[in-house]
Design the sequence.
């Protein structure tokens, strides 16, 4: 079974309304744009697909110029070889971080459909359900955050992660006031969206430790592992690292070796697809660390079901009133998919139905 073609289906997406941000000055919701589905077809007629949410035209260019000439004719079931081949091509081309994920997810989707099983079964399912935490975007005031937190708990979420303003003193005050508001039994986490330098990260980290937060995520850009080591030496709150840095498991290994990691990020989008994400999860498990799956995507659900050392599924809450995404049940759980492969997002299916 060999790869016969790679095709990119361009899909327009309107701007998210109302718009949201991860912190002041950092856009969260995307403007109107053209997204895409990568489709890999074999000479036996099997099809694997993966959705790409950012730049469909950029993906189309990379597929046409580089990936199609390289991958057509190769065996579709040699995912490991194909994954390594992408890294060889990346050395001079310097792919966007998401390219590995789009190709790899499509190949895993292909395999799942051929065998008639969801991808988490191919990975070796560890669980059938997982609790979801409410991952907020940025709101206007402490009072609004507390209001949204109450709504999230009423919706069944057992835990809350804050994306706040990117102001160390204001964020520290918010985090401590949220802890006082919800009490000691609700799991709380904080994501800095890489907004701080080391002194500000230390100040905020001390406040998070005092308030008993589960983890402190990406307070600084992840270019300097030394800066993260220094941060870990100065604060007591556990650090979650390695969300957006290049290099998949290779880069994560250096974060772990530095001693700064208690949790690491793994994901299909930013960490090398399903193949890269599982490498990171197993690497973290070797050191008895947690590997937390990033983002509310279809591949993320499968990873959450297959990664033993994952605590939660990340579910975005972008509005007030808070809305629970359909994947999360009233009990706060996300359940294992039963559909073969990895399903595309619902709006892609709706777009295709409307186009027919």
Sequence:
């Amino acid at each position: 079974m060999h790869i016969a073609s790679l095709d990119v289906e361009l899909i327009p997406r309107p701007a998210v309304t109302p718009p949201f941000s991860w912190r002041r000055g950092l856009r969260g919701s995307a403007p109107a744009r053209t997204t895409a589905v990568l489709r890999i077809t074999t000479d036996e007629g099997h099809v694997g697909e993966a959705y790409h949410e950012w730049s469909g035209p950029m993906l189309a260019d990379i597929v046409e110029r580089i990936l199609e000439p390289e991958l057509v004719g190769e065996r579709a079931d040699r995912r490991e070889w194909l994954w390594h081949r992408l890294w060889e091509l990346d050395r001079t081309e310097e792919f966007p971080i998401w390219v590995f994920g789009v190709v790899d997810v499509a190949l895993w989707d292909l395999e799942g459909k051929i065998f008639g099983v969801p991808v988490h079964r191919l990975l070796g399912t560890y669980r059938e359900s997982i609790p979801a935490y409410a991952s907020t975007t940025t709101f206007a005031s402490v009072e609004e955050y507390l209001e949204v937190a109450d709504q999230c708990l009423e919706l069944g979420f057992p835990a809350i992660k804050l994306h706040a303003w990117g102001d160390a003193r204001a964020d520290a005050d918010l985090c401590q006031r949220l802890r006082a508001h919800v009490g000691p039994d609700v799991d709380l986490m904080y994501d800095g969206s890489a907004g701080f330098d080391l002194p500000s990260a230390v100040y905020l980290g001390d406040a998070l430790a005092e308030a008993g937060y589960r983890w402190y995520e990406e307070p600084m850009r992840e270019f300097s592992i030394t800066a993260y080591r220094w941060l870990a030496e100065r604060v007591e709150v556990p650090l979650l690292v390695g969300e957006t840095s290049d290099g998949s498991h290779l880069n994560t290994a250096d974060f772990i070796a530095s001693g700064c990691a208690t949790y690491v990020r793994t994901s299909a989008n930013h960490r090398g697809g399903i193949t890269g994400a599982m490498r990171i999860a197993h690497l973290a498990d070797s050191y008895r660390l947690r590997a937390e799956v990033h983002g509310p995507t279809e591949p993320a659900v499968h990873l959450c079901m297959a990664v033993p050392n994952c605590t939660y599924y990340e579910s975005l809450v972008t509005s007030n009133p808070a809305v629970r995404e359909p994947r999360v049940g009233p009990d706060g759980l996300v359940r294992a998919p039963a559909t073969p492969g990895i399903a595309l997002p619902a709006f892609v299916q709706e777009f295709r139905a409307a186009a027919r």
Q: What stands out?
A: The first strand starts at residue 3 and ends at 13. The radius of gyration is 20 Å. The chain has a mean pLDDT of 95. The chain has two domains: 3-116, 121-335.
